[in-house]
């Protein structure tokens, strides 16, 4: 606990207690410990003689005869002290507490160095809990006076294992400050906040964390602030729940002239109030004569408890500390004695910390003032003088948090860690969040063993309150009986994982508190949309591609970036209203929700002008493309796609996470403009998406990435040649550039074939473990695209359709592979809204099967392709509509072979068994992107016009148009 002080440092320096020497057992601490040069497991075991003596001293506490006046005016009333004395002597069971501490925490000890200013080794005790998440962020938690590592008891599980994967996870490191808990007090003077900070940075380095974030209150915050200039490359950001800033002379002049704000007036009045001066004097004793105070309090455990309790009560006046709770807090610092903790005030006074002298913090800083904290209430303008404040909250009407939020309101502190440390603190400004997740931070070293949790397996069920208290919950609902019977407020239950296949009617039960699961939401509709996205839409958007972007990455950003969150609400609402996905097709309330959030996302995007925000703009660009896909707005989707690829070329190379997660998506996205663009200006440049040709495939991802690029290039040369086949240049020769590109693509296909064959035949392929081996479906998917690329590259500079016939055997092999693939994929459901996958952002098999059905003129084989389309394709793949495409392709078959095709693939007998003549072959087809209305037999029908391009004997191209009823194909 720290308040502003005005007394000067005493000239003399007092001798310190004898502390540990490195790599040896430590006498005089009343507990067993060894402190080596690297982290090693530690088990708490306090000397039984000391425990007996402590209980005996508690029993013999001499009570003061106090006067009749209101409680706590002069200190803790004697009747309260008497109750503590009796309970500690007769009922308190340290061994039970000790057993719980050993079971609930993973303890370690080590020795760290503080640099040249303090040359003595510093023995430390700390707890270290690693998350199972690969994207977890290292978090250094520093307590203040009179805390210990034990403060993280209520937050460590939520930080390491958040309720869903969209929230940030943390590797938590919580040391005892030297002189607190089980970290021995310093043996020599000079170990202040800055020196401790050097030691804690050394601790994080020993654990393998080269970059980390920090959270602290009280002295913990002060240490983090003094660390910031010394470790700008390691300590990335700080979340503080006590950020002291002294008023300057200008503030005091404005205060004297009644020109300060109400907030400033309140703070300056408090600092000059006699009551506060008395409170400050309470701590002034500790910094002035810490040893003198410690003599008496070390001899009497109950006196120490009363001293500690009075300060804690003053700073968190609304919280009722339980007797067992307070004795445990006191015992943790009484075991080695309170002198080391007191002397920290003397060092802080030497450093100027008690007078509010701190270095400016250049790293992002989050400041939170919790409701019920009677400590320093800094105005934002003052805080900005001493730190790069990017997150500022004052909780004045919320759940009590007090001066010790990790204990009093653990959930609230965790939510602030999620909100700030998972954004700015997650290396946001330096690496745009994911650099730390996947690139920058070094995984913790394995040089020290991680202690397995002792005792019974940890129970993951129960209400939030019981889990924070680490007690068994009876799980009664809506409030558990255990909380109710003890007078506590039951905070309810965390959401359970939902069944992905369940129905989602409009009255679907929402989470008990969606704002806790999805920070930042403002309405139930918004929370419901995000919940629906997590459970239903997100897992299916990727189609055959990697899910991680949609199930994890965007949800992590959504917790902290409004543009992402608004976009996901719009996507979720559009997805739920498929098959149309059109705002005008939804109810007015749903339409408003979609438009409101899409417009809000656009507004947020316009503010992202800083260069370091460009990768985030790329991510939002992908979400905007998805929104336009769902609305079947090809024009807007094309613009977003081309703009995104251009941006990727400009800024993507500088950010590893954009290369790893966004570049593959844009590489696949580059396909759809070549299918749906109507002019060359719609076609993106593929230069930014091209990578070096690998010498070998080290993983299946390498093979898939190269095939994505080759497929895009193959489609591109086909489309660039269309103008020479059916456009204004059809009588002109193909340019050399197309010939050369076709040769280059064929050469790269040869390389890919060799590398992939080698990959599958070596230990890196099929001989790897089952978990690492690519599935047969994944292998066949790449081989199918390989064959299609071969056909496209060969046909890119062919003017007629007849040469496709020379690829008949390849088409037949493709049909066999696709049929085999269809039999390998379990079909969950078919037809209508019961299809589990209504839409995928990535294109799946529809482009491949459409191409094969259109270009293979063997009737039997192309009917096989056509019948496979509903089995392998999704109802909607990007801008592809399955039922529209099957209807168009069926008409192509009917026109070319002069037959009628039934829904089951049966057809009338063709006039000839030979392939269609060149004049009968459809060279190209198109369909209007937007629906139109026609009056047919007196009824107004909504549909789309499609065109089929054919050639006459003179080589002229003419278009045959037909009208397709939307109701015929839009029900998939």
TrEMBL record:
InterPro entries: AB_hydrolase_fold, Epoxide_hydro_N, Transcr_Regulatory_Proteins, Zn2-C6_fun-type_DNA-bd_sf, Zn2Cys6_DnaBD. Residues 462-490 form the Zn(2)-C6 fungal-type domain. Keywords: DNA-binding, Metal-binding, Nucleus, Signal, Transcription, Transcription regulation, Zinc. Residues 1-20 form the signal peptide. CDD domains: GAL4. It comes from the Eukaryota. PROSITE patterns: ZN2_CY6_FUNGAL_1, ZN2_CY6_FUNGAL_2. It holds the Pfam family EHN. GO terms for molecular function: DNA binding; DNA-binding transcription factor activity, RNA polymerase II-specific; zinc ion binding. PANTHER family: ASPERCRYPTIN BIOSYNTHESIS CLUSTER-SPECIFIC TRANSCRIPTION REGULATOR ATNN-RELATED, TRANSCRIPTION FACTOR DOMAIN-CONTAINING PROTEIN-RELATED. This is Zn(2)-C6 fungal-type domain-containing protein.
């Amino acid at each position: 606990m720290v308040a502003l002080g005005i007394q000067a440092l005493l000239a003399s320096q007092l001798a310190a207690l004898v502390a540990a020497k490195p790599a040896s057992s430590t006498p005089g601490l009343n507990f067993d410990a060894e402190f080596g040069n690297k982290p090693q497991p530690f088990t708490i075991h306090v000397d039984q003689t000391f425990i007996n003596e402590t209980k005996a001293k508690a029993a013999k506490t001499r009570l003061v005869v106090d006067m009749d006046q209101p409680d706590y005016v002069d200190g803790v009333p004697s009747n309260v002290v008497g109750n503590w004395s009796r309970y500690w002597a007769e009922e308190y069971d340290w061994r039970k507490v000790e057993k719980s501490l050993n079971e609930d925490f993973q303890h370690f000890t080590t020795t760290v160095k503080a640099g040249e200013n303090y040359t003595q080794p510093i023995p430390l005790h700390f707890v270290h809990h690693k998350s199972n998440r690969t994207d977890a962020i290292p978090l250094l938690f520093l307590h203040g006076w009179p805390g210990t590592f034990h403060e993280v008891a209520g937050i460590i599980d939520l930080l390491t294992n958040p309720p869903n994967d969209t929230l940030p996870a943390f590797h938590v490191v919580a040391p005892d400050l030297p002189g607190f808990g089980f970290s021995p007090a310093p043996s020599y003077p000079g170990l202040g906040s800055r020196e401790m900070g050097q030691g804690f940075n050394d601790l994080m380095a020993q654990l393998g964390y080269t970059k980390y974030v920090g959270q602290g209150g009280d002295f913990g915050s002060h240490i983090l602030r003094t660390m910031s200039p010394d470790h700008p490359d390691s300590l990335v950001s700080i979340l503080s729940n006590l950020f002291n800033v002294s008023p300057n002379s200008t503030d005091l002049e404005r205060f004297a002239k009644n020109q300060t704000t109400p907030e400033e007036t309140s703070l300056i009045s408090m600092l000059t109030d006699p009551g506060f001066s008395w409170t400050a004097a309470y701590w002034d004793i500790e910094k002035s004569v810490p040893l003198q105070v410690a003599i008496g309090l070390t001899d009497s455990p109950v006196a120490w408890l009363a001293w500690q309790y009075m300060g804690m009560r003053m700073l968190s006046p609304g919280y009722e500390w339980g007797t067992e709770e307070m004795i445990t807090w006191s015992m943790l610092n009484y075991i080695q004695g309170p002198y080391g903790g007191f002397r920290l005030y003397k060092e802080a006074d030497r450093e100027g910390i008690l007078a509010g002298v701190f270095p400016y913090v250049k790293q992002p800083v989050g400041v939170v003032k919790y409701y019920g904290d009677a400590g320093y209430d800094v105005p934002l303008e003052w805080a900005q003088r001493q730190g790069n404040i990017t997150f500022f909250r004052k909780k004045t009407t919320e759940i009590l948090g007090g001066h010790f939020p990790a204990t009093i309101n653990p959930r609230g502190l965790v939510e602030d860690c999620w909100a700030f440390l998972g954004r700015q603190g997650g290396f946001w400004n330096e690496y745009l969040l994911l650099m730390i997740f996947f690139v920058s931070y070094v995984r913790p070293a394995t040089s020290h063993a991680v202690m397995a949790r002792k005792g019974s397996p940890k129970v993951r069920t129960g209400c939030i309150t019981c889990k924070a208290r680490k007690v068994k919950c009876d799980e009664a609902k809506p409030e558990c009986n255990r909380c109710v019977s003890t007078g506590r407020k039951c905070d309810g239950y965390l959401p359970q994982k939902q069944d992905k296949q369940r129905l989602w009617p409009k009255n679907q039960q929402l989470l008990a508190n969606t704002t806790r699961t999805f920070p930042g939401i403002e309405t139930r509709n918004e929370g419901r949309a995000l919940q629906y996205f997590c459970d239903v839409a997100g897992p299916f958007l990727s189609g055959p591609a990697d899910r991680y972007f949609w199930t994890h990455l965007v949800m992590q950003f959504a917790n902290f970036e409004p543009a992402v969150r608004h976009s996901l609400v719009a996507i979720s609402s559009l997805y739920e209203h498929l098959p149309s996905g059109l705002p005008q097709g939804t109810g007015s309330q749903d339409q408003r929700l979609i438009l409101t959030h899409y417009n809000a996302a656009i507004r947020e995007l316009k503010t992202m002008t800083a260069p370091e925000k460009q990768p985030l703009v790329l991510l939002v660009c992908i979400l905007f493309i998805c929104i336009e896909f769902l609305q079947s707005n090809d024009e807007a989707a094309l613009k977003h796609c081309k703009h995104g690829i251009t941006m990727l070329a400009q800024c993507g190379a500088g950010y590893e996470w954009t290369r790893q997660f966004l570049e593959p998506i844009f590489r696949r996205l580059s396909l759809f403009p070549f299918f749906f663009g109507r002019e060359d200006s719609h076609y993106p440049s593929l230069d930014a998406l091209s990578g070096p040709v690998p010498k070998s495939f080290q993983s299946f991802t390498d093979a898939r990435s190269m095939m994505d690029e080759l497929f895009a290039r193959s489609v591109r040369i086909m489309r660039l040649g269309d103008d020479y086949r059916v456009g204004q240049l059809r009588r002109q020769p193909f340019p050399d550039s197309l010939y050369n590109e076709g040769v280059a693509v064929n050469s790269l296909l040869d390389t890919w074939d060799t590398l992939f064959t080698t990959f599958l035949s070596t230990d890196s392929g099929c001989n790897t473990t089952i978990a690492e081996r690519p599935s047969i479906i994944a292998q066949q998917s790449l081989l199918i695209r390989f064959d299609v690329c071969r056909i496209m590259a060969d046909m890119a500079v062919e003017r007629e359709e007849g040469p496709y016939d020379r690829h008949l055997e390849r088409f037949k092999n493709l049909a066999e592979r696709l049929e085999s693939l269809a039999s390998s994929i379990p079909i969950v459901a078919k037809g209508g809204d019961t299809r589990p996958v209504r839409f995928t952002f990535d294109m799946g098999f529809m482009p491949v099967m459409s191409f094969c059905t259109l270009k293979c003129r063997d009737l039997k084989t192309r009917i096989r392709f056509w019948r496979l389309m509903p089995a392998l394709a999704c109802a909607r793949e990007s801008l592809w509509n399955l039922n529209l495409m099957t209807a168009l392709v069926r008409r192509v078959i009917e026109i070319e072979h002069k037959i009628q095709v039934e829904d089951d693939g049966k057809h009338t007998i063709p006039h000839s068994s030979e392939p269609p003549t060149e004049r009968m072959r459809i060279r190209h087809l198109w369909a209007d992107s937007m629906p139109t209305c026609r009056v047919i037999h007196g009824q107004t029908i909504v549909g789309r016009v499609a065109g089929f391009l054919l050639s006459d004997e003179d080589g002229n191209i003419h278009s045959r148009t037909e009208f397709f009823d939307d109701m015929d194909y839009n029900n998939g």
